[in-house]
Amino acid sequence: CSAAARSYNITLLPGDGIGPEVVAVAKDVLSFAGALEGVELRFQEKLVGGSALDATGVPLPDETLDEAKGSDAVLLGAIGGYKWDTNEKHLKPETGLLQLRAGLGVFANLRPAAVLPQLVDASTLKKEVAEGVDIMVVRELTGGIYFGKPRGFGTNDKGDDIGFNTEVYSASEIDRIARVAFEVARKRRGKLCSVDKANVLEASMLWRKKVTALASEFPDIELSHMYVDNAAMQLVRNPKQFDTIVTNNIFGDILSDEASMITGSIGMLPSASVGESGPGLFEPIHGSAPDIAGQDKANPLATILSAAMLLRYGLGEENAARRIEAAVTETLNHGFRTGDIYSPGTTLVGCKRMGEEVLKTVESLK
Ligand code: ATP
Ligand code: MG
Question: Residue 161 catalytic?
Fold first, then answer.
């Protein structure tokens, strides 16, 4: 299609803490990379989290959700901070994020964990094991044991107090998350590992059956299966064997955190949450980092890489996504580091400067 024809509306939700700092930087990079590829991006900024609570009394104002739902993609910074620590659910900034996910109907959470050659020493694993790791965990986000019913507290027939939860997956829930994962694997190295506990759990038996059945629609993808206990072990023993992993809500919660720890760089890790249609939600995995907020110390690269995921998985703008990823790599090659990834011999910079350095390279690379 013609260059000028591609234009999109992006909702920006800076949120709290370092959120506004990293989103401001990522917005400039996103805008510039888009423009270089003939993509026009229009931005609308809205309140969410603690800043929304302060201004409106709720963590997700209707106006924010309406804007997000009507846009093509949502870029979020971070939510929360000491200021809003409370046990009252409706006054929790984090409730705003849960409501936003539910409102957008995003059921697939994509979490890449790549060990960049420039940051291999930050890995929690030995260099030989960490080198070249590039994994994507696709986690089912809206089903499984976190939502299954019945759940609650009770008493068993011996009079002992019990707590109970239920793992439930329907065939259609499995089918839609598996489809996302096959498509993601297709955009990567063509390998998909489905992680379950099909030797013990019925929900996992159905999971494995449905994923296997779908494989015939994706003959170009190499599908394998692994039990979750083995997967947890293999992730630290030999993480290079994995490309894309697809798994249920609870296993994905655990394995995506495990995979991200391999990289050792929380300020570098992006994420995406997508649904069947409608806008996806793109955000760094780190929190609001109140300890460094407002000091121009935050690493904006996780949010910049989230913007690249927004282009790839949210808008289908692969070229602009690649530009951003290449620019991040090149900026690290030039030796620029924020405090969280600093090592002797590199150049310590702040959030804004890091953004400027990425912008400089966005133009020259692809
Ligand atoms: P959450 O808000 O999700 O509960 P958390 O409180 O566990 O998150 P973060 O807010 O992510 O954790 O912060 C953990 C530590 O990592 C803090 O010391 C913070 O300063 C640091 N950190 C997090 N994100 C960044 C970043 N983008 N750049 C630099 N340091 C960061
Ligand atoms: Mg926190």
Answer: no
User: Regarding beta strands 6-15 and 39-45, do their DSSP bridges make them parallel or antiparallel, or are they unpaired?
Assistant: parallel
CA distance 174 to 280: 19
146 is a catalytic site residue: yes
Nearest to 58 by CA among 31, 27, 98: 98
**Is 197 a residue of the active site?**
yes
Q: Which two structure tokens, joined as six digits, stand for 317?
A: 């703008």
What is the reported pLDDT for 4? Answer: 56
Is position 313 annotated as part of the catalytic site?
no
**Which residues crowd ion ligand 2, with CB under 5 Å?**
287
Q: What's the pTM value of the predicted model, to 2 decimals?
A: 0.94
- Contacts (Cβ under 8 Å, ≥6 apart) of 348: 337, 338, 339, 342
- The residue whose CA has the least distance to atom 14 of ligand 1 is 289
The minimum-distance atom of ligand 1 relative to the CA of 80 is 2
The DSSP symbol for 37 reads: T
Profile the chain (366 residues) by mean pLDDT over runs of 10 residues. Answer: 76 98 98 97 98 97 98 98 91 94 96 96 94 97 95 97 98 98 97 98 98 98 98 98 98 96 94 96 97 98 98 97 97 97 96 98 82
C-alpha 269 to ligand 1 mean position (Å): 11
Q: How many CB atoms lie within 10 A of CB 148?
A: 15
Phi, then psi, of 60 in degrees rounded to 5: -135, 90
Q: Find out whether the peptide bond into 150 is cis, omega within 30 degrees of 0.
A: yes
| Ligand lying nearest the CA atom of residue 293 | 1
Would you state the structure tokens that stand for residue 78, as one six-digit string?
Answer: 């971070």
Nearest atom in ligand 1 to the alpha carbon of residue 286 is: 11
Q: What are the respective helix, strand and coil percentages of the chain, to the nearest 5?
A: 50, 20, 30
pLDDT at 352: 98
